[in-house]
Each structure stands twice: as structure tokens, then as C-alpha cells.
Amino acid sequence: MAEKRKKPDIEFGATIKAKEMRFREVPETKVEFFGTPGHESGHGDRRKNLPDEVEPNKTYKDVQVDYRLASRLVFDDEDEKPSG
Question: 84 lies in a domain?
Fold first, then answer.
């Protein structure tokens, strides 16, 4: 039997749209999750007319990016869990 997927404690979503988008240089991007207690986290995006790695000084037209980030706290000990 498959394990039931647990809901995230926090979830963030955003959509950007642009008629035109241009990068002077290739951006450096990074998403990190850290802290205590532990966590299970993930993120991802869906892109329209924008590659994962953009080219400098190239114009991209009719762009859309849907982004989602989710994280769930993971406790080592049942006593650490907040009540309620």
C-alpha cells in the first residue's frame, strides 16, 4: 500500500507573466532550506517560453513562470511536536 502524502506546513506559489523578458547576464539562483526542527521541502516551476538556463541579451517573449515551494516540519521525537 502506498504511503499517504502529508500536507506541507507552509506552501508558497507565484506566477509571473511578461510580454518580453531579457537578462543582461545569466542569473545565479539557489534555493536552500535549513533550520530546526528538521523538514521535508521541495520546490519547482513550470515555464512557458523561458528555458531553465537563459542566454544573456536574448529577448524571450510571452513568458510565464509558475513557481511552487512547500515545506513540512519533521520532528525526531513526539515530545517536540507542538500541540493543537
Answer: no
In a domain? residue 4: no
- Split into its structural domains, the chain has a count of 1
Burial class (CB in 10 A: 0-12, 13-18, 19+), 29: exposed
SS3 53: coil
pLDDT tens by residue, 1-58: 455 667 889 899 999 999 999 999 999 988 887 777 788 888 999 999 999 999 999 9
Structural contact between residues 50 and 63, judged by C-beta atoms closer than 8 angstroms: yes
Residue span of the structural domain in which 65 resides? 10-27+34-79
CA distances for 31 relative to 18, 40, 56, angstroms: 23, 14, 22
Identify whether 72 is part of a domain. Answer: yes
Model pLDDT, residue 12: 94
Give pTM, 2 decimals: 0.72
